[in-house]
Specification:
Layout (H helix, E strand, L loop, with lengths): L15 H9 L2 H10 L3 H11 L3 H8 L3 H10 L4 H21 L2 H9 L10 H4 L3 H15 L5
Amino acid sequence: MTNTATGIEATTPREATDLLRILRTPTPQLVERVRRGLPFAELVALRKTLGLSLQEMTAYAGIPGRTLVRRRQAGRLDPAESERVLRIERLLALATEMLRDVERARDWLKSPKTALAGQSPLDYAATEVGAREVEQLIGRLRHGVFS
């Protein structure tokens, strides 16, 4: 089903408009959300959208298993974990915007890329520096500059 507002195919649990909202949210609001800590449910929703196991998702977000149990009970991530989850959400939104399809964006994020030293964008984005490079790659691809 294509979202008429965005023209993007929403083929996973989260609507495309939800995914793209992060790109239009003012930075001060994002900073405040990170400082408060994202709801645990946001991690779960992102995991479902990406089609990852909880173990895979927490590895990408850098959350150890024991900590995950505590976060689930508390219902909220800490600021550092929230920032890493937000980083992944932003990359998913950018890839969805670029490919105009949530499922294709998810597959793109999981597939190795020559421009990222043979790593998938999700793997490469394990650090902030890597995430910025993935964002730059998306920008180049959107503008027809193939890397």
